[in-house]
Amino acid sequence: MEHTLYVVGIGPGNPDYVVPKGLDIIRRATILVGSERALADFSTEQQVTYPITGKLGELTAFIEEQLLHHDVTVMVSGDTGYYSLLPYLKKKFPHVPMEVIPGLSSMTFAFARLHEVWQDADLMSFHGRVPAVEKLAYHKGKKMGFLTDNEYNPAKIAAYLIELGWPPTTKAAACERLSYEDEHIERRTLEEMIHLEGFCHSVLVVMG
């Protein structure tokens, strides 16, 4: 009997924002894989769990072994189609039956918190990469959303955009811990954002 690999987007993290089917699959899972934070929030004592770390080879071996006997559910933050583990899993398990359950991306959630639409925004990531300079070029009315990391936090990105010609008075908002009780949003100009500390793993929205 073939077993299924489920990939479930858990949105910004709070279970209230996971689609019902995804939450049902997570709750019924025998083998549950996810970040340590996700496992702490969603797993039960009856489930076999495995934390996602930087050791993807070991993760692959674990999933491969478990699929011999069980379905495996992998939780990914945000949406499955937006900078998630899905491409890696498709490459490693091309012949395994797979079901993908989308979730809210942290990017769309951030725009919602700011009461802004994202249909006209350029969405990019500074998480482990740097967007091409031409994609960051300024023009009046341009709207952008970025995922951030430890190296490129909102302060560094703000300074970089000013170097590329963005007006220092451009409005921006840094959003972290979205959907949790300690959610934190800072609305500042790019010039003011340069002095913002923290917000390493967050969303930065810039509105030109």
Characterize the structure shown.
Pfam families: TP_methylase. Pathway: Cofactor biosynthesis; adenosylcobalamin biosynthesis. The chain has helices spanning 20-28, 36-42, 56-66, 86-92, 106-113, 154-163, 190-193, and strands spanning 5-9, 31-34, 48-51, 72-76, 98-101, 122-125, 143-147, 171-176, 184-189, 203-207. The strands form 2 sheets. The protein has a 5-stranded parallel sheet, with helices on both faces. Strands 6-7-10-8-9 form a 5-stranded mixed sheet. The protein folds into 2 domains: 5-101, Cobalt-precorrin-4 Transmethylase, domain 1, CATH 3.40.1010; 106-207, Methyltransferase, Cobalt-precorrin-4 Transmethylase, Domain 2 (2-Layer Sandwich), CATH 3.30.950. The model has no long low-confidence stretch (mean pLDDT 95). The chain is elongated. It contains 7 helices and 10 strands. By secondary structure, the chain is of the alpha/beta class.
Helicity, in percent?
25-40%
CATH structural class of the largest domain? Alpha Beta
Q: Could you give a short account of the major beta sheet?
A: 5 strands, parallel
Mean pLDDT: 95
C-alpha end-to-end distance: 55 Å
Estimate what percentage of residues fall within beta strands: 15-25%
| Number of distinct helices | 7
GO biological process, one term: cobalamin biosynthetic process
Keywords: Cobalamin biosynthesis, Methyltransferase, S-adenosyl-L-methionine, Transferase
InterPro entries: 4pyrrol_Mease, 4pyrrol_Methylase_sf, 4pyrrole_Mease_sub1, 4pyrrole_Mease_sub2, CbiE, Cobalamin_biosynth_MTase
Protein name: Precorrin-6Y C5,15-methyltransferase
